[in-house]
Structure formats: C-alpha cells, structure tokens
C-alpha cells in the first residue's frame, strides 16, 4: 500500500516557517516543471534545484526531478535522485527503473 499524507497542523504558529517553506518548495518545483515543459530546460532545472534545496529529503520533489532527468538522458543524476527518493519513500516500484538507469550510467562512464 502506497499511502502518503500531507499534514499541516491548524494553528501551528511555531511551525509556520516550515509550512511556508514547504509550500514554497512545492510552488517552486511546479514552476520548474512548467518551465521545462515550455522548453526552458535549464531554467526549469534551476527551479527544481531551488525547491530541493528547501527540502532536500522530500521524496516527491526528488522523484519529480529524477523522472525529468531520465527524460533528458541525465542518468547519473536521475539515479541519484531516484535512489534517494526510493530510500525516503520506501517505494519498491522504482526497482526496475533504477536497475536500468543506474546501469546505463555506468555504461556511459566507461
């Protein structure tokens, strides 16, 4: 079962900066994907990088950037992002993809 819950506590003044950063990271990754889809590839990756800097251990953000890295044949970076996302999210659905892209990365280095 793949279950994810986003939790934003009501009246959480002590956590408000964390919540604001989380919302900013999600808006930033979405902006990056939009730029990428509009053909502004490097600008899109810059936005995605900014989002991940805000929340480096967010599996969803890493998964998004990793999947786009695969589309761009940037296998080494995709392998890193998706391996970390799998560890964070405990998602075994990535096993076959990781086997392919991480081995493709090794082939590129030879």
Write the layout of secondary structure elements.
Elements lengths: L15 H22 L3 H14 L4 H13 L3 H15 L5 H15 L1
Helix pairs in contact: 1-2, 3-4, 4-5
Features:
110 residues; mainly alpha; 0% strand
Proportion of strand residues: under 5%
Number of helices: 5
Rough outline: flat
Alpha carbon gap, first and last residue: 39 Å
Sheet with the most strands, sense and barrel status: none
- In total, how many beta strands? 0
Class by alpha and beta content: mainly alpha
- Taking pLDDT < 50 over at least 5 consecutive residues as the criterion, the unreliable ranges are none
Return Rg in Å: 15 Å
H/E series? HHHHH
- Helical coverage, percent range: over 70%
Mean pLDDT: 86
Describe the structure.
The protein has 110 residues and is mainly α. 72% of the residues lie in helices and 0% in strands. The chain contains five helices and no strands. The radius of gyration is 15 Å and the shape is flat. The mean pLDDT is 86.
Short description, anyone?
By secondary structure, the protein is mainly alpha-helical. The protein has helices spanning 16-37, 41-54, 59-71, 75-89, 95-109. The model has no long low-confidence stretch (mean pLDDT 86).
